[in-house]
Amino acid sequence: MTANTPRPPRGRRTAIAVGIAAALTGVLAGCGHSGGSPASKPTTRIPAKAAASTAAATDSTLHMITNEGHRLAFHVTPGHQPAIVLDAGGGLDSSYWKKIVPELSARTGSEIITYDRAGMGASDPVPGPWKAQDAVSDLEAGLTALGATRHVVLVSHSEAGEIATYITGQHPGQFAGAVLVDAALPQFSTDTEIARVAAATRPEVEQIQAKDPKARTQAERQLLAVAAGYVPDQRAYHQAVWPAAVPADVIVSEQTPFPTSPPDAEAWRAAQSAFASEAPNRHLVTAAGSSHDIPLDRPDIVEAQIEAMAATVH
Q: GO CC terms for this protein (predicted)?
């Protein structure tokens, strides 16, 4: 996407809410914190109806889990194993899955876990540049505290694909499979796309930097955190490898995240296809008639792929 490329409509609450370029290339719209192994503490259980939270389903329970000094909101709908973990895209929280969670619970009987990344929903904000391993550490801490340490089915939309790539690479034995929903994949982050995205985002970043820090929105603060290390972070992500032992279903939208930029749309499709073709336990599915918001436009496809993946877990 060049700096002159028209931006997609902003009328819908999509995963590009934190800035078109940043959200679509796998750079997470979270806030960084010091890395290291998860330092989780016992969870605090609060009934979702009684909490001022973004719990995805009315019968879920909110667990506030502490990692590296900040609290993260994990919402759990009870059920049997395998646990299904839903991770929303940039600028979004667990409420993005609110229509899918009850259906998945009914169809699979599985435990459903959604969560708010740092700075989103009911989770604490954490200042500083965003780093992928910080987001991985947060998810690790939450799943460990909740006992979801084996046979997990991970569902990742948009920029959450970067978290999925790193966490499955570090803990392949923890995950039975993944459903990648128009997810940002390493194959997309070529030098060409990194440069185009950085150029497209620069005017918006400069505009935000000129504002009074107190007047910046949550999304604007997150975009600045992402932009701080965008180029080196994406170059590193391009080298990441998905573990061969973890099967993945890849759902790509018909419109892609770049409906107004044919070169970037083609690069996105090519990345999805290349990833799916690298191993026999990966499958590519096109969500006909869908925008980048496949969970909103075609929840039937997302639910069917998750159900099929969960059914393979023994």
A: membrane
